[in-house]
Amino acid sequence: MSDIFTLTPDDGDRDEPTRGPTRKRRLSKPVVALITLASVLVAVLVVVGVVGGVYAARLASSFDDNATKIDQAFPAESTRPAPASDGAMNILLMGSDSRADPTTIDDASASDQRTDSMMLVHVDADRENVYVMSIMRDLYVPIPDHGSNKINAAFAYGGSPLTVQTVEQLLGVRIDHVAIIDFEGFKGMTTALGGVDVYSPQAFTSGEYSYVAGLNQLEGDKALRFVRERYAFADADFTRVKNQQAFVKGLANTILSRSTLTDPGKISAFVTAMSPYLTVDKQFDVGTIASLGFSLRAIDGSKMHFFTIPTAGTGSIGGQSIVNVDQPGLDAVKAALADDSLDALQISR
């Protein structure tokens, strides 16, 4: 597993849940949601590309039929960067902060909810590498027509369109697809795979579960606890982020293993368990998944790289804890995203 740039700590989950009107679907535990979504998207794309034929089409169709579609996911075209000319792709993953109330993201419009977690998945033009960049929820950035605020406020102000516009202006690249997930599918996903082997950098305990330094097989509630725990660590979110990235790496290796790819029942159970909990832009359909999946057929776990957007420590504005942008580091990421050269950035362990 690789981290581009050294992680800078934030102040954890201090935002209080916002109470809004009761809606149709419930989104919870956004940190877990984003981990799961990153994994599921990679899994669906790769599986469709690998297994081929009628079976792959059936899996893709299941995904398309069961995942909820966002009709208005993007801002006005006049505000957006141009599409990448080389075929590189950027997918924005979001989790909505709705710990206290049911909510819907069917229309992805302005609401009382904030995106508590956010990741950008960059698929390079030659389809040889996938980069997953975590964006700190408390990152203090300009939000179009709303001044500067934590980046997770963009969803509350203007739903998916404003969040996409904020990220596009921050990073200088176009977001091609948007996806959101409900964490409820997490336990079913790990069970469908028969567990996931994950390496923990240190031993710790969370509730009734204990984890060793080294290899752990995680499934169901034990997997959920592993990726959520932060209070067990002196550096809190630092180690939690590392554990989350270790889990995604382990999950990708499990999905791409021969024992999974040669087991149609296991693949089908995995996709079936997760697709009802996904919400995507309406362009992210069967054809797009099949095409991208086929182009990623050579990807393995070593070609997935995880890093966090460069930050410059924490601060406080108006009594709120914020995370500051490391502008020189961000400029380097923007340039690398623009010319599809993330592989050239210095990698730190």
Note poorly predicted spans.
1-39, 97-108
β-strand number? 17
Strand content: 15-25%
Structurally, how many domains make up the residues? 1
Spell the H/E element sequence. EHHEEEEEEHEHEEEEHHHHEHEEEHE
The overall pLDDT average reads: 75
The CATH class designation is Alpha Beta
Named CATH architecture:
2-Layer Sandwich
Largest sheet: 7 strands, mixed
Head-to-tail CA distance between termini: 8 Å
Radius of gyration using CA atoms only: 19 Å
Structural class: alpha+beta
Strand line-up in the sheet with most strands: 2-13-8-3-4-5-14
* Helix content class: 25-40%
The CATH topology corresponds to: Nucleotidyltransferase, domain 5
Number of helices: 10
Describe this structure in words.
The protein has 349 residues and is α+β, with helices and mostly antiparallel strands. The chain has a single domain (3-185, 256-335), classed as Nucleotidyltransferase, domain 5 (2-Layer Sandwich). It is 36% helix and 23% strand. It is built from 10 helices and 17 strands. The protein has helices at residues 30-51, 53-66, 153-171, 186-192, 220-228, 237-255, 258-261, 264-274, 286-295, 327-338, and strands at residues 3-4, 68-70, 89-97, 114-123, 130-135, 140-142, 148-150, 177-181, 196-200, 204-206, 209-211, 214-218, 278-281, 304-308, 311-317, 320-325, 347-348. The strands form 6 sheets. A 7-stranded mixed β-sheet has the order 2-13-8-3-4-5-14, sandwiched between helices. Helix 2 (53-66) crosses helix 9 (286-295). The longest helix has 22 residues, at 30-51. The protein is globular.
